[in-house]
Design a protein that fits this description.
Blueprint lengths: L33 H4 L19 E4 L2 E5 L16 E5 L2 E4 L5 H11 L4 H5 L1 E5 L5 H5 L11 E5 L26 H10 L7 H9 L26 E2 L3 E2 L29 E7 L4 H4 L14 E4 L19 E3 L8 E2 L3 E3 L7
Parallel strand pairs: 9-12
Antiparallel strand pairs: 1-4, 2-3, 4-13, 5-6, 7-8, 9-10, 10-11
């Protein structure tokens, strides 16, 4: 494992040497096949594909905020602190994570082939895999046996060849690498958020709170995010309503009107990952651009649990190699606001 790459139970890297998967037979130029098309949700022809901010984009005003945390529940080795004052230009960010429907439109319009398809496999959580998917698994990463490298798993077949997303059009797209997410954002005329933009937006105007809604995980015993409920990784009680991904509009939005900034799926950010991020980047529009073999991710996922991966807090950080894909990682898009920085 690279020194600059964070290892956690919530992610698995394609570069794990214990995985032996078949060589991909997918051509990079391949268009959407008839079989693949049958596994895609109906595309809404009115879905915007321009670079203009629409009703699904929220303007985050220019301003300053306290970034990072010294929370005792945090992970100092991840570089969550020290707390510092950061200033950002205005920007638009999508209200929701990019959905299967939106990604299907991208694939249909461009014939784009994801890295999971090129490699021929992607990581599926063991409790979500079907019997056929388990039989098709090429192995598991050392130390995280709950991840299965399933042949045939990709964004439109999230649990393997015998699965589809026909009833998950409004769920976040998963099995997308950082490179795939960047390609989608470029097509939409946007980009991935920086870590600073993501955290500023996730806080929803609150100052140094643990979650997008405050400091209590379940105020009034109400579930406000999709995370693991039970004993990880063997039993998920799904008391929050979902064993896997939830619709992107599930639960209440934060103060800026953004949904699922904690839990559901990890979200790629544009920065390269470093544990020294808060000590080496600028206090004005910080963006870490020195290659470190891993890209940053934020927000946690439906697999996060306090006992193993308490990284669904707004200041928490994670990373993975830019070609890696899993069943719990997606993204959202940013468009520069007036006078903002397109990075």
């Amino acid at each position: 494992m690279m020194a600059e790459q964070l290892k956690s139970c919530c992610c698995a890297s394609r570069g794990d040497a214990s995985i032996v998967a078949p060589e991909s037979t997918v051509s990079y130029e391949r268009s959407v096949s008839a079989d693949q098309q049958q596994r895609l949700p109906e595309v809404d022809s009115e879905l915007a594909s321009s670079s203009q901010a629409d009703e699904n984009m929220v303007l985050i005003p220019a301003g300053e905020f306290l970034m990072g945390t010294d929370d005792a529940e945090g992970f100092a080795q991840d570089g969550e602190g020290p707390i510092r004052n950061v200033r950002l230009d205005a920007f638009y960010i999508s209200r929701y994570a990019v959905t299967n429907e939106q990604f299907a439109q991208f694939v249909t319009a461009t014939g784009y082939v994801t890295e999971a398809e090129k490699f021929g496999w992607s990581y599926v959580f063991h409790l979500l895999a079907t019997d056929a998917a388990r039989e098709a698994a090429a192995g598991s990463p050392q130390g995280t046996p709950w991840w299965l490298a399933v042949n045939g798993a990709y964004w439109a077949q999230p649990e393997g060849a015998d699965s589809n997303i026909l009833d998950r059009a409004d769920h976040p797209v998963v099995h997308v690498s950082w490179n795939d997410a960047t390609a989608y954002c470029s097509w939409r005329g946007g980009r991935l958020p920086t870590e600073a933009e993501w955290e500023y937006a996730a806080r929803g105007g609150l100052v140094q709170r643990r979650y997008p809604w405050g400091d209590l995980l379940k105020p009034d015993i109400e579930h406000l995010c999709n995370i693991w409920q039970g004993k990880f990784p063997v039993k998920n009680n799904a008391s929050d309503g979902y064993h896997g991904t939830a619709p992107v509009h599930a639960y209440k939005p934060n103060g800026y009107g953004l949904y699922n900034m904690s839990g559901n799926v990890w979200e790629w950010c544009s920065d390269w990952f470093t544990p020294t991020y808060h000590r080496v980047t600028s206090a004005v529009s910080p963006h870490y651009t020195k290659p470190t073999h891993a890209r940053s991710m934020r927000g946690g996922s439906y697999l996060c649990h306090k006992s193993y991966c308490n990284r669904y807090r707004v200041a928490a950080r994670n990373s993975n190699t830019p070609d890696s894909s899993t069943g719990n990682c997606g993204f959202r898009i940013v468009v520069a606001g007036e006078g903002g920085n397109q990075q």
